[in-house]
Amino acid sequence: MYRFEAFQRMLDRARSMRGVALMGICNVTPDSFSDGGRYLAPDAARARVDEILAEGADIVDVGGESTRPGAVSVPADEQIQRVLDVVRHAASRGACVSIDTASAAVAAACLEVGACAVNDVSCLRDPALGEVVASSGAAIVLMHTRGTPEQMQGFSRYPESGYRDVVAEVCAEWGAAAARARSVGVRSEAIVMDPGLGFAKNVRQSLELLTRIADVVQTVGAPVAIGASRKSFLMAVESAAPSDRLGASIAAALHAARLGACIVRVHDVRPTRQALDLTALLRRG
After folding, report:
1. What angle in degrees, to the nearest 10, is found between the helix axes of 104-112 and 127-136?
2. Catalytic residue list contains 265
3. Catalytic pick from 18, 46, 48, 231?
4. Measuring CA to CA, which residue among 204, 276, 197 is closest to residue 229?
């Protein structure tokens, strides 16, 4: 079975249950903005995988490189050392696993041991990553951004003049990345769009994208993933530490699901699942 077909089967099952798939985050890093260092040790990372699966995650998203503003690029061999056994463990549990990386070498190693998707926060900066996805028959989540995390100016800091119409420009730039992916053999139906909330966007720009998710879905004609969990733009409602942004994170996930997002990427799987499940139950009456 192609890896994409396993990914699509998971997506169809999750959407039939609650309207959206839950992507649970496992950061195997010392410096991620919210949980850096908590799951860097192999035992802690494997326990994190078990935890988010028990809480109801449909996808386990494993990453070995922080993408917070100012984060320094991590060499591929170091990323592989951090994540490979974690990906293998998650796959052995029957999980649908995505590897969060912009590195073709990291993606290839993780797809070999059971991952079925690549979560690329670089907007396919390196076409070789697309070639790996194509040759393995995997799915790819392409996230819109401009530049690298190391070049980012800060949490939710970006010039107001950076976009005239943030939805139109994000969709157009993402569309160019999707075209690059298709040009190296990635199947159109295997491409998922992520508008990249907080990446090269200020608070207002991220909020506008989130508000207009239905426009994004209609424009790109592809499944849309939303990663709002604990991000700094959520401080539009209250200045709070990342771990204290649960209410705003859940509200963002519910809003995104209601407007047509197919995947929500979250740190807090159980409370988000409960909110989504109750919402679905109430709609059924």
Report:
1. 20
2. yes
3. 231
4. 197
Is 9 annotated as catalytic? no
Decide: 75 and 45 in contact? Cβ < 8 Å: no
Q: What's the pLDDT band for 154 if we cut at 50, 70, 90?
A: low
- If you compute the radius of gyration of the chain from its CA atoms, what whole number of angstroms results? 17
Out of 48, 245, 265, 273, the active site residue is: 265
Instruction: Sketch the domain layout of the chain as residue ranges.
Output: 3-279
- Range 261-271 average pLDDT: 98
Contact 96, 62 (CB under 8 A): no
Integer angstrom CA distances of residue 173 from 20, 181, 194, 217, 224: 25, 13, 12, 15, 15
**Residue 209 and residue 219 in contact, taking contact as beta carbons nearer than 8 Å:** no
Q: Which two tokens stand for residue 208?
A: 């506008």
Cα(254)–Cα(106) distance, rounded to whole angstroms?
Answer: 32
pLDDT tens-digit readout, 216-242: 999 999 999 999 999 999 999 999 999
Fold of the CATH domain 3-279 = TIM Barrel (3.20.20)
